[in-house]
Amino acid sequence: MTDPLLPALTDFIFTAEEEAAVQFALSTEKPWKHDAVELEEVKETLIELKKKIRAFHLQRQNSKCCYCRMNLHGGGNFIIDREHIVPKEKFKALTYVISNLSVACKRCNMELKKGDLSFLVDRGSILHTHSNADQYRFIHPNYEKYSLFIEKISYEVNDETYVKYTKLDHPKAHYTYTYFDLRALEVNTFDNGQGITTPDNASTVRERLAEEISALG
User: Fold this and answer.
1) Alpha helices in the chain (DSSP H)
2) Among residues 93, 115, 137, which one ends one of the domains?
3) Which residues form the HNH nuclease domain (predicted)?
4) Each residue of 172-194: pLDDT tens digit?
5) pTM recorded for the entire structure
6) What's the structural domain count of the chain?
């Protein structure tokens, strides 16, 4: 599949030490659990590799959750998850495959997605077709550009907030919006606080917000 993001997936290079640690980890029951006794000898290598993976995918996702586009900039382990798109618990072989990894907020990963597989079109073949975006009902974090399916507008000043997701007419846009309950993240306190009704038209909202920003100097 075409990679629309930067840095490119092919730019991520495992060192020989990292590759050896990954292969050793994959021979154990839980290869991602670096604190496991059986992974003691490669623990430090895996910890540093996970930091490297997180930094790489934060750069690719512009420090945003790959599913809801929440800002993750400056967030620590309590905010940011290294996301396995196809769950590692179900498909161990994909645990360290860089195209099966991304970054997500805790809400999308731990509360909503968890170990679910319903978003896969054909789970029986996913080990061989995991790099095919057509195998996923939601927007694939690595092989599809989020903004080509859903536009998120977010604006915040002090206690006033505006968040709106505008879906394009595509099945993946609608599925992603529903699967990750993006409606629950939409907020309109900014205009409500001023007693103004915000139009749904995205371009009009952008113009209005630009005017507000300009007015703030």
Assistant:
1) 16-26, 43-60, 106, 126-129, 171-179, 189-192, 202-215
2) 115
3) 52-110
4) 999 999 999 999 999 987 765 44
5) 0.87
6) 2
